[in-house]
Amino acid sequence: MKIKTKVSLGLIFLFSVIVVVGGISIFYLSELSVDSKNIIKDNYESLEYMRGIQTSLDSLPINPTQAILGMEQNLKAQEKNVTEHGELESTSLLRNAVERLKLNSKDTIALKKIHLAIYNVVDLNMKAIVRKNDIAQKTSYQATLYVIVIVTICFLVSLSFIVNFPDYIANPISQLTESIMAIANKNYEERLHFNRN
For residue 60, what are the contacts with CB-CB under 8 A and spacing of at least 6? Predict the structure, then answer.
């Protein structure tokens, strides 16, 4: 193998190491980003809507019309944001209880059903946040493990390359130099053996 080819292969290898490690890192960072967005986007919004309904419910004795209007706005937003298994049923129960409360703002059964539905939706979303956080943690652990393994392998191969590569280039040059020095010292029996590679 020619020296130029050896140098080119060495540089291609080092470039490949950079591309592989960078690509894997970008892939897993992207996965972590998606997992984090899943946690924040849907579940956090549901919790915010439930908090809004609870706030409106707390203001029901003071201003029933405004409180029901606030509940209605948050409930409509929640109905468009149903993402977890079982959340649709709790949201439907909440809708039925709010409709009942619209007819009579002092309906204690409707108030209890609203509180129960809010609790169920919050509980479902909190559990989903914990579950999605666990997925993000597993992705993070897996990414770290893969990057460590690949970097270790690349490091060992690169170290071997760094240790052996100078010999590939230097040995033919030093043999040529020794032969030239021997001829220069009037040792005409020395022969130069050229290997095309």
Answer: 67, 68, 101, 105, 111
Total residue length of the chain: 197
Nearest Cα to Cα of residue 46 among 79, 73, 70: 79
Taking the model in full, what pTM does it have?
Answer: 0.66
- Span between the terminal Cα atoms of the chain, in Å: 5
**pLDDT (tens digit per residue) in 116-168:** 999 999 999 999 888 888 887 887 788 788 878 887 887 787 777 777 767 76
SS (H, E, C) 32-77: HHHHHHHHHHHHHHHHHHHHHHHHHHHCCCCCHHHHHHHHHHHHHH
